[in-house]
Amino acid sequence: CTTVCANGGTCSAPNTCTCAAGWSGVTCANPVCSPVCANSGTCSAPNTCTCTSSWTGATCTTPVCSPVCSNGGTCSAPNTCSCATGWSGATCTTPVCTTACANSGTCTAPNTCTCTSSWTGPTCATPVCSTVCSNGGTCSAPNTCT
User: Fold this and answer.
1) Less CB within 10 Å around the terminal CB: N or C of the chain?
2) What mean pLDDT value characterizes the chain?
3) Taking the model in full, what pTM does it have?
4) What was the pLDDT predicted at 2?
């Protein structure tokens, strides 16, 4: 052989290399990956893929999310989270309240409202009266008995 057979390849006939397992090409310089590297990954050594920054895993088939998905969300594509029930947002950090919080209440966890001091209840729709309404009266607005 006028050229050198690389990576353990042997010269088996004039200018013909027989490659060792994991290598291919005229001079046995090309690594072989089986299965092939996906998503623009490159075969850098036999059965070793070098992935782009958007993918990871043995064959570059696992997407990368940065920052990571929170609250049980899963990375479904590069930098794309699929959120668990009750969460939304790019990284699943925004809680979802199926019934909106009323009277300036804030959704602080899935279906959990945190109310201002003047309101209470699951959706902050029940007014708070600092004194008990007397004579059968009801609390109709914050600190207002009717």
Assistant:
1) C
2) 96
3) 0.71
4) 81
Q: Which two tokens stand for residue 66?
A: 């940065």
Calculate what percentage of the chain has a pLDDT beyond 70. Answer: 100
Here the tokens at position 105 are 């209440």
**Counting Cβ atoms within 10 Å, is residue 101 exposed (0-12), middle (13-18) or buried (19+)?**
buried
Judge whether 91 and 70 are in contact, CB under 8 Å: yes
Extended beta strands in the chain, E state: 10-13, 16-18, 23-24, 30-31, 42-45, 48-50, 55-56, 62-63, 74-77, 80-82, 87-88, 94-95, 106-109, 112-114, 119-120, 126-127, 139-141, 144-145
- Taking the C-alpha atoms of residue 99 and residue 86, their distance in angstroms, rounded to an integer, is 12
What are the phi and psi torsion angles at 118 (to 5°)? -90, -10
| CA–CA distance, 93 with 107 (Å, rounded to integer) | 12
What six digits make up the tokens of 2? 């006028």
Here the tokens at position 53 are: 């920054």
Tokens 């006939």 label which residue?
A: 13
pLDDT tens, 109-137?
999 999 999 999 999 999 999 999 999 99
Q: How big is the chain, counted in residues?
A: 146
